[in-house]
Amino acid sequence: MAQVPSPLSINHALYFFTEPVRVPTLVASNTTVMEHKDSVVLTCYTNAVSTQWFYSGMNLGLTEQMKLSWNDRTLTIDPIRKEDAGN
Fold first, then answer.
1. Which string of DSSP letters, residue by residue, matches 20-53?
2. Long-range contacts of 54-63 (CB under 8 A, 24+ apart)
3. Whole-angstrom Cα distance, residue 23 to residue 2?
4. Considering the domain 25-84, what is its CATH architecture?
5. What was the pLDDT predicted at 19?
6. Percentage of the chain surpassing pLDDT 90?
7. What is the model's pTM?
8. Helix, strand, or coil here: 61?
């Protein structure tokens, strides 16, 4: 009599653990600066996967004097100009 293989049950599960995104904290290196002379480094502290910068409610358009860090968490403006002030 031939032996019948027993059923084999393999379960694969993929679990994603997500942490709610905390409200980001923005820290500025300087709050009192001289135009065309000083620089400002803005750092965004968050647990979000990505960071996007906004200026006056719109996506920030980088200029020559603006640089983002490799992970987009730090924005350096050097030198700072009056036009860089905003919400």
1. PPPPPEEEES-SS--TTT--EEEEEE--SS----
2. 55/86, 55/87, 56/86, 56/87, 57/87
3. 65
4. Sandwich (2.60)
5. 78
6. 53
7. 0.73
8. coil
Question: 84: which 2 tokens?
Answer: 């860089």
Contacts made by residues 45-52, CB under 8 angstroms, sequence distance 24+: 45/73, 46/21, 46/22, 46/73, 47/19, 47/21, 47/22, 48/21, 48/24, 51/24
User: What is the token pair recorded at 7?
Assistant: 């059923």
- In the chain, where the domains are located: 25-84
Give the per-residue pLDDT at 16: 65
**pLDDT tens for each residue of 55-85:** 888 999 999 999 999 999 999 999 999 988 8
CB count in 10 Å sphere of residue 61: 8
CA dist 46 and 63 (Å) reads 24
Please answer whether residues 50 and 43 qualify as being in contact, where contact means their C-beta atoms are separated by less than 8 angstroms. no
